[in-house]
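Quick start: read one record
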Amino acid sequence: MKIIHVYNQGLHHDIRTRRYGQAMTNRFTELEFHLIGQRLLPNDKIVEIVSDRFRIVRLRFFFLAKVTGFLKIINFSLWLFNVLFYMLKQKDVKVMSAHSLKILPVCVLASILKGAKLIYDTHEIETHTTNNKRVISLLTLVEKICMFKVQEIIVTSPGHYAWYMDKYNIPVHLIRNCPSIKEKPRPYLEQKCNLKNKLGLTAGELLFVYIGVINVARGVNVILDAFQQCEKTKHILFLGFGDVKPIIRLAAENTNIHYLEPVHPMELVNFISTSDVGIHMMDSSNLNHRKALPNKPMQYMAAGLPCIVSDVEVMAGLVRDADSGWIVKEGDSEYLKVLVNRLTKADIQKYAINSQSWFVKNNWESESLKLIQIYEQFI
């Protein structure tokens, strides 16, 4: 039997869906797990075999090059057709799972035609990732129409959980995107990859790290403003993808600003564990952000790092409850600069211990038990 998950991403950096596949195939020995994504680059593997019963399938666009306007609509529509065709030709499909509102209607149609159960596994409140009222109304209408076929909703944040519980009369489950114990830093890492050594830092200097998508909504501009004014013994490393050109330019002009290419998602926690503090300064520009629980602070804590986060509702609540770091007013680069300049290794050690304690009780191994319980009723 098969379970098909669909996400409109290239699936190069998404670790949650990979964890799903591993958890499901470990628990259900007769199960094939198919994860459908997008072929974004010419050298992308069409089929990536993760294990003998877990495969990632990246379906083609008409145009691989970046297109806009009407061509972009045609491109995405063709990809949706490929998704539908792939799902329809599969046999013995028990469950389909849509990881985005953009592909939910196609999954509704496929689940009807295949007689499969449907789960809406949304990573965001996608109807409210904007403040445009017309767009919100249109997306809300699409989502409401699709809900007649959805059996269960899975969300990643307590804020999203409360919102969907209030919105729909459908079972909602909270499964946080906590890192796995398998990603926990290993003793030999210090010798294998020490980031401070890699960047040429001395023992007395502090290394702050930012991971993930590099854009304004994640507060990257605030972090840059602060570190350009910080003491040069306080360093920031950006490790991610997106609008990296300004980072690279400023790194050339400031000895305490650094950039490295992303590493494999399963190695990320290990990779950053030799830095000192993790930073995530997401803004509260829309309802989705205010209710979101980004996985970045959880990855920092899994790596044994304390966190600096902006005072956005749910994310700040996580750090406050875990007592694992510092909360800075959203957009306040001046205060961030002052905080970074005054931090010592003794300050950091206190919160690092709390981060480690949090991860012992909050990890993917415990969260995945909820996922298994949901699917047991369908398989």
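The chain has a mean pLDDT of 92.
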